C-alpha cells in the first residue's frame, strides 16, 4: 500500500511550503504543493497526518561513535541507532576508534555485517588511518566506505597519526573524503605538563585538577595549528578535506579564507558547541568533557555565525557515549565524549524558534549538505525519485529530557532537565514507519549508504 504524508509544512531545497508527499515502497513518487482533500486517499493509502507539523528530509549525522565492537557496555549499533531514529536521524556514519579499531578492510566488513542485522538507521563506516595502513585505505571500497578518519590529535582510542610522511601519503593517495580531528598533540602535552607542575607546586594531586582546565590543556592554539596543517596537506594534493567539530572562531576565519582556494574544503560543527561554553564546566564537569574542548562563549557565537554564513557546511553530533561510572572519575581519568544523537534536531529546532537560525538552513546543514559533501546517492532531500527518509516534527509538543525518555545505553545526557518546546513524532526510513507518535514501531528497513565517488 502507498503512503501519503499530508498537509504538513515541507522543508526542502531552500523553501518551505504546505504540501503532501506520496511514497510507494521505499521511494518518494510525488510531492503535492498546497492543500489536498485527504478523503480521496483514505481508502487506498496509509495516511500520516502532518497538519501543523514540519516535514523534513531525514537527518544524516556524519560523525557518531556507536562503540561496537569492543565497548558495547557503553552502547552498540542497535541501541544508539534506536536513539538516533527517535531523534529524526535516518542515516549515520560511524567512526573507527573501536576495539579492535576499524583500520582494515576485514574490520570494516565486520561492522557492516553487524549493522545489516541490528541497525535501525541507514549506515556507513569510516576507515581509520594509522601510521602504517595506507594500502588498506587505498583498497577500501569507495562506494560504501564514507571516508578516511585521521586523528591528528589523540582522543578515545589510540589512533593518533603523527608522522608527517604518513599524513602526506594519505592526503596524496586517498580518493575518499578525509575527515580530520584537528588538535596538536605537541601543544596539548606541553599544556598538560604546565598544569601538572602547577598543581604539584601547590601540593595538590592530579585528582584536584578541575574540569575547567580542559580548554586550557586542549587549547585553541592546538586546534588552530592542526587545522592549518591539514589545510596545507590538502592544498598540496588537492584532497577532499572535511574538518570535524570546529571549536574556535579562529578556525572559522581560517576556513572562510581558504575556501576561496580550496573548493574541496568543508567543515563541520557539533550541536554541543552551540549549547555549552567554558562557563558551564563548573556545573556539568565531565558531562561536557569532549575533544576538542568546548571553549568560550565568543567561540560558540562564531560557530553559529559560521553556520549561518555558510563557512560551516554540516551540523552533526560527535555522539560519544560512556558510562556514568566512567565519566564520574577524576579529570585525567574521565573519558571525553557525550551522547547527543537523540536530541540534535530538537536542539537546532529550539534555536530556530528563537530566531537564531532558519529552518531551511537547519535542513541544509543536517540533511542536504551531508548528502552533497559525502556524495550520498538519492538521500538528503525530499525529491521525487529519492529514498523516502523523512522526519516529522511537532513544533508544539513539549518534552523534558530525563532518564525515563533516554534511549542511550549509558542512560545519561548533559541535557537532563532541559525543556524543549518541540518533538520528533515520526521517522520514516526507506518508506517504512520506524518511529510513530514518538515511539519505536519495532520495524527495521535500512540500507547501506551508497556513495558516488
Jot down its keywords.
eight-stranded parallel β-sheet, TIM Barrel, alpha/beta, Urease, subunit C, domain 1, nine-stranded mixed β-sheet, 453 residues, single chain
Count of helix runs: 14
Please report the first level of CATH classification, the CATH class of the largest domain: Alpha Beta
Spatial separation of the terminal alpha carbons = 34 Å
Under CATH, the topology of the largest domain can be stated as TIM Barrel
- Report low-confidence residues grouped into runs of 5 or more: none
Gross morphology:
globular
What kind of sheet is the major sheet?
9 strands, mixed
Q: What's the CATH H-level superfamily name of the largest domain?
A: Metal-dependent hydrolases
Query: What structural category do the secondary elements indicate?
Result: alpha/beta
Q: Taking all residues together, what is the mean pLDDT?
A: 96
The structural domain count equals 2
Write the CATH architecture name of the largest domain: Alpha-Beta Barrel
Determine Rg (CA atoms, Å): 21 Å
Strand-residue proportion:
15-25%
The count of β-strands is 19
Helix content: 25-40%
Amino acid at each position: 500500500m502507498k503512503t501519503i504524508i499530508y498537509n504538513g509544512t515541507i522543508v526542502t531545497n531552500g523553501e518551505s511550503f504546505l504540501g503532501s508527499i506520496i511514497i510507494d515502497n521505499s521511494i518518494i513518487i510525488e510531492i503535492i504543493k498546497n492543500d489536498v482533500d485527504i478523503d480521496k486517499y483514505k481508502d487506498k493509502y496509509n495516511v500520516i497526518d502532518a497538519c501543523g507539523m514540519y516535514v523534513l528530509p531525514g537527518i544524516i549525522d556524519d560523525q557518531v561513535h556507536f562503540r561496537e565492537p569492543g565497548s558495547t557496555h557503553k552502547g552498540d549499533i542497535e541501541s544508539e541507532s534506536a536513539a538516533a531514529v527517535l531523534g529524526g536521524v535516518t542515516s549515520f556514519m560511524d567512526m573507527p576508534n573501536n576495539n579492535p579499531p576499524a583500520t582494515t578492510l576485514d574490520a570494516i566488513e565486520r561492522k557492516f555485517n553487524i549493522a545489516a542485522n541490528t541497525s535501525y538507521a541507514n549506515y556507513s563506516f569510516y576507515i581509520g588511518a594509522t601510521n602504517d595502513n595506507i594500502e588498506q585505505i587505498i583498497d577500501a571500497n569507495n562506494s560504501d566506505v564514507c571516508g578516511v578518519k585521521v586523528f591528528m590529535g589523540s582522543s578515545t582510542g589510540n589512533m593518533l597519526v603523527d608522522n608527517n610522511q604518513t599524513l602526506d601519503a594519505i592526503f596524496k593517495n586517498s580518493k575518499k573524503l578525509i575527515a580530520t580531528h584537528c588538535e596538536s598533540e605537541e601543544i596539548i602535552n606541553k599544556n598538560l605538563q604546565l598544569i601538572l607542575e602547577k598543581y604539584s607546586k601547590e601540593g595538590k594531586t592530579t585528582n584536584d585538577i578541575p574540569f575547567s582546565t580542559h580548554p586550557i590543556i586542549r587549547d585553541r592554539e592546538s586546534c588552530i595549528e592542526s587545522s592549518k596543517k591539514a589545510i596545507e596537506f590538502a592544498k598540496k594534493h588537492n584532497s577532499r578535506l572535511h574538518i570535524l567539530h570546529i571549536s574556535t572562531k579562529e578556525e572559522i576565519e581560517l576556513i572562510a579564507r581558504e575556501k576561496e582556494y580550496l573548493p574541496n574544503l568543508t567543515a563541520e560543527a557539533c550541536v554541543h558547541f552551540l549549547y555549552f561554553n567554558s562557563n558551564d564546566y563548573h556545573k556539568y564537569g565531565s558531562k561536557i568533557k569532549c575533544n576538542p574542548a568546548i571553549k568560550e562563549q565568543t567561540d560558540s557565537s562564531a560557530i553559529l555565525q559560521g553556520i549561518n554564513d555558510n563557512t560551516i557546511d554540516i551540523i552533526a553530533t560527535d555522539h560519544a557515549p560512556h558510562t556514568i561510572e566512567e565519566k564520574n572519575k577524576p579529570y585525567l581519568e574521565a573519558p571525553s565524549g557525550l551522547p547527543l544523537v537523540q536530541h540534535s534536531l530538537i536542539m537546532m529546532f529550539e534555536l530556530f524558534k528563537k530566531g537564531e537560525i532558519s529552518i531551511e538552513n537547519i535542513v541544509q546543514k543536517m540533511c542536504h549538505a551531508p548528502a552533497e559533501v559525502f556524495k550520498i546517492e538519492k538521500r538528503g532531500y525530499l525529491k521525487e525519485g529519492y529514498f523516502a527518509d523523512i522526519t516529522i516534527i511537532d513544533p508544539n509538543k513539549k518534552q523534558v529530557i530525563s532518564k525515563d525518555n533516554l534511549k542511550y545505553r549509558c542512560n545519561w545526557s548533559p541535557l537532563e532537565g532541559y525543556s524543549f518546546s518541540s518533538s520528533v513524532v515520526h521517522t520514516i526510513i526507506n518508506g517504512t514507519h520506524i518511529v510513530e507518535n514518538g515511539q519505536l514501531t519495532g520495524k527495521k528497513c535500512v540500507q547501506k549508504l551508497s556513495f558516488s565517488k
